[in-house]
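Problem statement: downstream parser choked on a complex file, so we are re-checking the raw output for the adenosine-5'-triphosphate run. The parser issue turned out to be on our end (a line-ending mismatch), but while we're here, posting the original submission so the record is complete.
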Amino acid sequence: MNTFFEYFPTVFQALNEGFLQTLKIFIVTLLGALPLGLIISFGSMSKFKPLFAVTKTFVWIIRGTPLMLQLLIIYYGPGIILQENVWGQGETGRFIATIVAFIINYSCYFSEIYRGGIQGVPHGQQEAGQVLGLSKSQIFFKITLLQMIKRIVPPMSNEIITLVKDTSLARIIAFQEVIWAGEAFLKASNGVPSAIWPLFFTGIYYLLFSGILTILFGLIEKKLSYFRS
Amino acid sequence: MAILEVKNIEKHFGKTEVLKNISFSLEKGEVLAIIGSSGSGKTTLLRCLNFLEIASSGSIEVNGETVFGKDIKLTDNIMRKNRLHFGMVFQNFNLFPQYTAFENITLAPKLALKNGAETAKKSVEEIEKFGEELLKTVGLFDKRDFYPCQLSGGQQQRVAIARALAMQPDILCFDEPTSALDPELTGEVLRVIKELKGSDRTMIVVTHEMNFARGVADKVIFMADGVVEEIGTPEEVFSNPKSEKTKAFLAKSLENI
Ligand SMILES: Nc1ncnc2c1ncn2[C@@H]1O[C@H](COP(=O)(O)OP(=O)(O)OP(=O)(O)O)[C@@H](O)[C@H]1O
Ligand SMILES: [Mg+2]
């Protein structure tokens, strides 16, 4: 027991640093994929056939293959094909490649959620607005938007909580997120003898983080529960 | 002068002709019932009046003003203005779920006021007062702050009627206003429509309720395959139908009762 308390601060600090990287992937992915997903969803609802076909195929490929594979291809692909490391050196390079892969992957998932939310609002809502003389933008902002948000929140919260855990995939290209940090202690390092508990301990970070998000999304859903559509 | 003059309206979707040479007129305060079998084009006709569909040809005049015709260039703005001559009550209500009954009724007038539209009421207070009056008209003043999901189908449809009236249309259209309702709820909605007739409103009601059409309408149109097969007073259409198609349709709807 003595040894645990002795080594805990070292491990804790290493895991915190790792988790900070995890958080960075999470936040930057959301910042990129939330808007990009909306743009892709417009493509997948487009009446312009070529754009529709290209978007649908792209979304199918991205959603139909593992994120881990995409990550590997995006990170190693350019170096092997172009003989040039486009991502930059070291940890920064790995971070950029990770972010690119995650944003592409998640924006495709988000685009389907947006599409469901947008198409899920009955057309009659728009028509009711039209016959009352509302303009297109009034119909969107005053009538359909909130109904879309209500439809989008539950699947979006699922997807975002999946993202929390998916960040660990960045480990595959040796990005130093929290699992990587925990795993490092399997071998004696930083003056801490070989131990498995730091790896278990990383689970607590995920649990707390996804727990907080679950509560947060629950609050939003509750806030929107005053109406049913 | 007729309040509504519909002349030679045609509508096709691709190659299918859905409305063929529809013409009729309505006087102020008249109630027109449109009957006819499924697929005969009743909904499409109402949708053309409300500009939810654009007729392929023909003209529509309200109070002598042409709101649709070959000389009218239908920009978004003109369409928004012209469609306000008509109100629409949908089969499945289409209330805005995130707004209360009162908010559903006052939303559009308030937005019109904000836009400075000429048809608008002059102040928010006036709009709200009118909204409350309308709630009383449809007998739902006590449900003022209820959301649509807290109301029965019949109550929702009455709110939808009040919402349409709030924009003070010249002509109020109903597309089978009771066919999405449980039988025991149709009465309350039909009663409201009947009471509106008393207050001198011009209305067009597409309906399968033959008793209602007969008892309330001043004029009845029987539509078949996109044409006005028969038009006349309820007496003429129901008791002395000239067309074989009308006779067959009436015989069949009597059977169903
Ligand atoms: N958007 C559309 N595209 C193609 N065809 C359409 C469209 N809307 C309606 N139709 C066709 O037009 C015809 C008339 O339809 P409409 O809905 O006006 O009939 P209706 O008399 O209202 O029938 P019901 O009593 O069932 O409501 C139908 O054959 C229908 O299939
Ligand atoms: Mg219909």
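For whoever reads this later: The CA atoms of residues 113 and 235 of chain B lie 44 Å apart.
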